[in-house]
Amino acid sequence: MTESPSQGLREPFDETEPSDSVEEAAAPAVAERTTPPAESSVGRRTGDSPSSAEPTADSPDRGGDPDADASDLVTVNSADAPPVKPPQPAAHNRPGPDATASPAKAETPPIDQVPGFSSDQPAHQDGSGPPHEARVAEQDAARVAQQDAQSPLELLAQLTDTPAPPPSLPRSLARRIRIWTPLVALLGIVFLAVQTLRPLPDPALALGETTSSFTVGGGRFSMPWPEKGQAAVRVVGSDTVWTFGKEKPVPTASIAKIMTAYVILREHPLEKDEKGPQIKIDAQTVEDGKAGHESRIEGLEAGRTFSEQDMLKMLMIPSGNNIARLLARWDTGSQDETAFVAKMNDAAKDLGMKNTTYTDPSGLDRNTVSTAVDQLQLAEEVMKFDAFRAIVALPNADIPGVGRINNNNDRLLMAGLSIRGIKTGSNTPAGGTLSWAAYKTVDGEDRLILGTMMDQHATGPDPNGANSLILVQDNSKRVIEAVREALTSATAVNKGQVVGHVDDGLGGRTPVVATGDLRAVGVPGQKLNLTIGDGGGTVPRTAKAGTVVGEVTVGTGAEARTVPVALGADLTEPSFGAKLTRLG
Predict the structure, then answer these.
(1) Using CA atoms, how far apart are residues 150 and 351, in angstroms rounded to an integer?
(2) Which residues, including other chains, have CB under 8 Å from residue 527's CB and lie 6 or more apart?
(3) Which residues contact 1 (CB under 8 A, 6 or more apart)?
(4) 584: which residues sit within 8 A by CB, 6+ positions away?
(5) Spatial contact of 451 and 230, defined as CB atoms under 8 Å apart
(6) Does residue 420 have a pLDDT over 60?
(7) What are the angstrom distances between the C-alpha of 248 and each of 156, 239, 251, 478?
(8) Rounded distance between C-alpha atoms, residue 236 and residue 389, angstroms
(9) Residue 18 reports pLDDT greater than 80
(10) Most CB within 10 Å of its CB: which of 454, 467, 480, 555?
(11) Is the pLDDT of residue 337 over 80?
């Protein structure tokens, strides 16, 4: 029979037809459901061959009812069909009408247990229930949804009738290796690029562990310290400061004038023989010159002028207290010394004189206190002024309008010990105080020896500290004699000796050697530190053996001695392996 295009329904089979006709008509329908979705009967255009859509009475696609009447087989009009028919299971996995249950069949649940299936379907036009092919489509769609929810291995197992392989450690490791190997390779390439292209550290010179210091031979030097008080001694250019006594602040007396001169020369510097600006004597200076029981310059006239150089001579040689106060007022332009005293304390702080306090510019006030170590630091700084050194070395001086002034330290200046200053101090609270400077020629160079001794009190009568002044001079003289006698030179580094290396920053070291003998100055048993540096240049990344790359130094400051150092082997850039393995 043919299908009516207007109704979209076919007449049922004639019950009188032979059963083999039904089977022949059902065979194409079974085959059709195994074809891809685009060729199935659901969604077929009206006018397609109806014979290909006729299922058999025994077809499992009729809901598994082999006794269904052939009159129940209908086709669905394209207007009532779903827009797309889901994919059908493979034909070889769908059992025939007479097939017995198989493992593959058992894996497919009954239609009423398939997720997404519902029996609440709209009734057929004749009220007999949902169309047969619509139910088949829903069953297939539910199976497809169930398959989509399965893992790939489970789905493959169902389609091939082969169980999924159980999880295993080798398989998991192989999968992880396949996933991580490309990523690790990429990271390795990036790491190689970064390590080889990043900037190299600057090469630097470093001392060897055995050449970081040198001890002067010849035994051990013993300093003849006083019985009491405190003292400090240093050979300029060495790191050693010998000290004696407890480092506690004590009155300074007139050695406070060293700081007054330092501030004046810092604010108003002079060359060695330069006179400098003129300074006018005021009425206060004249009046202070009449005071008893203190050192002063007498006979001054108000309005008279003196050069800065002459003012410093009257300050340091006879220790004029009234000159100290005048210089303080002149420097600040004020009527008293308060602002200048603040400058003195600021300078002490800048020099690291942590135990020093100034309350007046002359040192007459007992509240002006310091230590031997602090005053030694000040002495080294002030002796850098050429004008100052020239003044304090004078045993006396002639000042126009004043006459000859004599140095209170002439007992030491004339002792034949190359003593060239610096300043004495004495009064009852302070006793005797002294900062001194002496020289000794070593290896053709004058070496400066500095020292300070404080808190020296004579026993018995001591009017205004006069006997204590003699005591501190005698005690200082013994120390000066001992240091000058012991001071010597020795070879700290020999020519050709390996003193250090060039460090390329990545673990590579190239040795450097001294190009000559390095002589050090000190006393027996004194330990001197050595340092190495580029000498103001730049250490190269590559150079031939013998190239001078820096210098090794013994001592500090202007008195330090140096000798060039050169490469003991060719200097090359870090290797590829060193670049690759650096961490910093």
Answers:
(1) 85
(2) 213, 214, 215, 216, 240
(3) 10, 11
(4) 201
(5) no
(6) yes
(7) 95, 22, 10, 23
(8) 15
(9) no
(10) 454
(11) yes
Question: Average pLDDT, whole number, for the chain?
Answer: 80
Please list, in sequence order, all residues whose beta carbon lies within 8 angstroms of the beta carbon of residue 553, skipping any fewer than 6 positions away: 530, 531, 532, 533, 560, 561, 562
Instruction: List Cα–Cα distances, 302 to 201, 296, 298, 458, in angstroms.
Output: 68, 15, 12, 39
Of the candidate ranges 21-30, 116-125, 512-521, 527-536, the one whose mean pLDDT is the lowest: 21-30
Give 571's DSSP letter. Answer: B
Place of tokens 């540096």: 533
Looking at per-residue pLDDT, the higher value among 181 and 345 belongs to: 345
Provide the 3-class DSSP secondary structure of residue 200.
coil
The model's pTM: 0.67
| Mean pLDDT (whole number) for 230-239 | 93
Cβ atoms of 357 and 249 within 8 Å: the answer is: yes
Residues 6+ apart with CB under 8 A from 573: 200, 504, 541, 542
Reading the block at residue 4, the tokens are 């009516």
Before 422, cis peptide (omega within 30)?
yes
Amino acid at 56: T
At residue 61, φ and ψ (nearest 5 deg) are -75, 0
Closest CA to 553 of 500, 488, 486, 487: 500
Residue 540's pLDDT band, with cuts at 50, 70 and 90, is very high
Query: Encoding tokens for residue 328?
Result: 């303080």
Tokens 């001079």 belong to: 473
User: In this structure, what are the phi and psi dihedrals at residue 364, rounded to the nearest 5 degrees?
Assistant: -65, -35
What residues have CB less than 8 Å from 156, skipping those under 6 apart?
A: 162, 164
pLDDT at 48 over 50: no
